Amino acid sequence: MTKIMINVSGKKFVIYKEYLQRYPQTLLGSDDLELYYDATYKDYFFDSNPEAFESIFDFYLYGKLYEPATIPKEMFQDSVHFFRMMSVFEEEEELQTKQEEEVFQERASTPMISRFRGQLNHILQNPSMSVPGKVYGWIDLLCIFLSIVLMLFETDPNVVEMIDDKTSPVSKTCFIIESITVIYFTFDVLLRFFVTYEKWNFIRHPTTWLDVFTVFPYYLELFIDVTKMKSLKVLRIARIARVLKLIKKNKRLMLIATVLSQSVSELSMLIIVWSMCITVAGCTFYFLEADANPTIVSGVDGLWWAVVTMSTVGYGDISPVSILGKSFATVFVYISMVFLALPLTIIVGAFSKQYEARKCISLKENKSVYKVDQVQSED
């Protein structure tokens, strides 16, 4: 592959020439590029705005074009026209129109059931795009809310006795509400399985297993008396996982989940460093306080103090009494604040990158992309 240098008003960009030739209809990808070659400096010189060209340069690398926020819109339009980027949009428009026609013809020839499945799939995947989707989404949120409230209500000691008595009105009411919510959650999973076109991917997806996990204890209790088997009562904790269903209902929560999943390597390294600091600090605190502090019995107590202190919680059940212990605790508190700020920096940085990546979307989806009809209307 051949590297070339592009000089845009003094700012230089290096790129493989083959990347430019993937778009021969543009100025940089055509033979007209040689007209701008400067033999003295051995680069291609363009008298244009370098900030606007950065976006165009990224297009050749990633296939995405976005409008810079640091320059006027008209200036960016001039650069887009100068480098003949509109020819790319023309092909995109023709391809999109052709694909829409093919989809329309395919839908016209598909059976009624297939079209109904497609409409349901669109409603479930994009609930904010239609009234039925919004109604279905609100029903889903209502069932999640009822399930969580019922779970908290059943933890009251007075209510527990009445729920264990299957003949009491409270027990019957709780059972009816729980049955309604579980039936809805089960119907939701089956409906999504019916409308999806990729059955195997749907089965393997973590959210599907989460939905099944949240309703499994209910069906188990229909066949097994959990009140007589206290070890199975722990399965009721699965109902807490229904709160996590809210993540897939909100795009902002999905963005946070994506950021955390992409920061696993950084966070895992941070946990390792935390563990090392807690171990060193806990053992040091134990040896400094073991003789003077009656609350320190073993090294485990020192580790517990380090965990509580490093998380800045400070329960107060274990505190230093000696001068050396207090001095060490003072230094460790300030060190803990530094380590507490590290994960926030990592998460905020990753969140900013993901947010910017969402803004820089493909040409066919971004409204800020300059399509042919938009530019012609402005001209």
List the helices and strands and how they pair.
Layout lengths: L2 E6 L2 E6 H4 L16 E2 L4 E4 L3 H13 L10 H10 L3 H24 L2 H14 L5 H23 L3 H8 L4 H27 L3 H6 L1 H18 L27 H12 L1 H26 L9 H12 L12 H37 L12 H7 L1
Parallel strand pairs: 1-4
Antiparallel strand pairs: 1-2, 3-4
Structural write-up:
It contains 15 helices and 4 strands. It has 379 residues and is mostly helical. The chain has a 4-stranded mixed beta sheet with strand order 2-1-4-3. β3 and β4 form a beta hairpin. The longest helix has 37 residues, at 323-359. Mean pLDDT is 77; it is low at 361-379.
Helix/strand order, N-terminal first: EEHEEHHHHHHHHHHHHHH
Q: What is the typical, i.e. mean, pLDDT?
A: 77
**Class of secondary structure makeup:** mainly alpha
Rounded Rg: 31 Å
- Please mark out the parts with pLDDT under 50 across 5 or more consecutive residues, or reply none: 361-379
Q: Spatial order of the strands in the main sheet?
A: 2-1-4-3
User: Based on DSSP secondary structure assignment, what is the total number of beta strands?
Assistant: 4
Q: Considering DSSP H and I runs of 4 or more, what fraction of the residues is helical?
A: 55-70%
Beta-strand portion reads: under 5%
Give the distance, in angstroms, between the N- and C-terminal Cα atoms.
39 Å
Characteristic key phrases:
about 375 residues; mainly alpha; about 5% strand; flat; disordered C terminus
In short:
By secondary structure, the protein is mainly alpha-helical.
